[in-house]
Amino acid sequence: MIKDTKKILFATDLSIECRNSYSYAVHLAMDRKGSISLLHVIETPSISLETRVKNLFGENRYEEIMRKHEDDARSILIGKRKEKEILQSALSKFCEESMGSDPGCFLQPDEIIIKKGEVAKEIVLTAEEKESDMIILSSHEGWTTSVSKVIRDVLLLSKVPVIVVPPTGN
Question: How many domains does the chain have?
């Protein structure tokens, strides 16, 4: 038996290509009288990359560089506001702009979620945590010749249907 799709998890990297897939998710949720949870995952660097940098500069210098980088990013890019608030604001603006061409069709996200970690794993874990019935992802230009590692991994790990929406014009 096919489960009725009511709870949709929409994962986004906040790129322009994601607007088409967000519009699709909104229309699907409205059609099914469902809800959407928006997810953005901040990818953490791989352990091997981190290890190589630590070996190059030393543990203490690496930690110092990382702290300075975080402080600089906060100061320059987001001022005194918290990173989560900025990302939530960016996600809300993304929603509004995505639906700008169809103002009669706007569905406020049920929840905006921001996580750090391995992108594909965090998407699948969040879908399980939120008991999502479906995951919607966006592909990028050239997706027909090479599906991204994130999409491939989500397709392999997910226990719920995954829809991959091509960018506008494809």
Answer: 1
- Rounded-to-integer distance, Cα 129 and Cα 159, Å: 12
In a domain, residue 72? The reply is: no
For the chain, the residue count is: 170
What pTM was estimated for this model as a whole? Answer: 0.67
The answer on pLDDT for 74 being more than 50 is no
The CA-based dihedral angle spanning residues 76, 78, 56, 64, taken in that order and rounded to the nearest 10 degrees = 90
Nearest to 149 by CA among 127, 124, 128, 120: 120
Give the integer Cα–Cα distance in Å for 11 and 22.
Answer: 9
Q: How far apart are CA 23 and CA 44, in angstroms?
A: 28
138 φ/ψ angles, rounded to the nearest 5 degrees: -115, 140
The whole domain housing 87 covers 7-45+82-165
Q: Report the candidate in 114, 99, 91 with the shortest Cα–Cα distance to residue 41.
A: 114
